[in-house]
């Protein structure tokens, strides 16, 4: 029961007149009814702020009305004078006007808030957004619009919101041929995660042979795999025409430590005697350092 100290209060709010009962024993205002004001031709931003501050859920719709200034109220739903029900949604119809509209800066806002701010200005907004690279802290936030802030847009023309993906694009530098430490330092400095995969190769141990992600669109935080030589192979030198001793020296200089197999072939050319006629593996082939090498050496064959 309401005490004798209770008073009937009339609260004039931006949304209309509220008739309520105030209990001196509490701070509660019990709303009994409210009528929506006539907001025709008023500034949409101000009306929106007033209604939302009073706790109403407000939807904004852009109307192609050239006879009013852009960003002003054309009509409301429900209509002015309607008694509002509890939790009733109010729709504001906002005019586009007939002159170019300066695009407000909505960067940093949520997509929902940015849409509302643009519509309150009388600008139509595309339903689809466009993902753009951005720092991680801008992910999901508006980072721009298809018509830049400060420029003007023709009434009735749609604008698109650019939304941060939270991914900063990274251009992969050339690291093939570098030692793995230098390559890793370059890539981690760009925000990439580096993985290393070793592979048999005649390149010096620790040399980057290839990058598995070459040609891909990369962003900060992506993983990149470096294929690195384990230095376990040698490139076979050309032994043909060398003496057996010279052939062995060449192999040792290349890092070879395997077994040498010799065979002979006949010749009558004394200039070829003792020199290598054939070799296996052939020159240029990459082989294990401890693999066997075969050479065929010329020897004199007298009739």
TrEMBL record:
Residues 129-149 are annotated as: Disordered. Residues 30-96, 97-165, 230-299 form the PASTA domain. It comes from the Bacteria. It holds the Pfam family PASTA. SUPFAM superfamilies: Penicillin-binding protein 2x (pbp-2x), c-terminal domain (SSF54184). This is PASTA domain-containing protein.
